[in-house]
Amino acid sequence: DAELQTDGNRSGHMQNGEPVFDPQVHDEVVRIIAAQLAEIGDQFDREIKARVVNDLVQHFLNENLSREEITRHMSEAVEGLARAIPSDMEQEKAMLVLAMVLTKKIANTMPSLLHHVFSTTVNYISQQLHNYIARMVSA
């Protein structure tokens, strides 16, 4: 929970200081999914314009915006970028990868926003894509 994994390592949570993993999730399945998402992310990374990232950075820097408003701006950016994705790709997969790539690009642009951007992205993914991720891992 509250983990964003793109490197092929399985995510989990801590219990008594020790990592606890879902025994139903197979390591190899997670590695394959992560590798596919990373490959798509590399492609998207080259296509995302600096203006989109800079606009999001400004929203994150605006102290007058609530967490919900910032999440809405993140969602709008992801959905806008997803509309440009070829129709042969699952829309939910594209949105998941775009959210992670935007998070990386924002953190690279303004490292001091890492924690805020990370928690917003986790919130966005939990709200919008939780069912898709569960289906992808269980398939």
UniProtKB/TrEMBL annotation:
SUPFAM superfamilies: Bcl-2 inhibitors of programmed cell death. One of its GO terms (cellular component) is mitochondrial outer membrane. PANTHER family: BH3-INTERACTING DOMAIN DEATH AGONIST. The keyword Cytoplasm applies. It is found in: Cytoplasm; Mitochondrion outer membrane. Residues 1-21 are annotated as: Disordered. This is BH3-interacting domain death agonist. GO terms for biological process: cellular response to stress; intracellular signal transduction; positive regulation of extrinsic apoptotic signaling pathway; positive regulation of intrinsic apoptotic signaling pathway; positive regulation of release of cytochrome c from mitochondria; release of cytochrome c from mitochondria. Keywords: Apoptosis, Cytoplasm, Membrane, Mitochondrion, Mitochondrion outer membrane. InterPro entries: Bcl-2-like_sf (IPR036834), BID (IPR010479). It comes from Probosciger aterrimus. Gene3D superfamilies: Blc2-like. Pfam families: BID. Residues 1-14 have a biased composition (Polar residues).
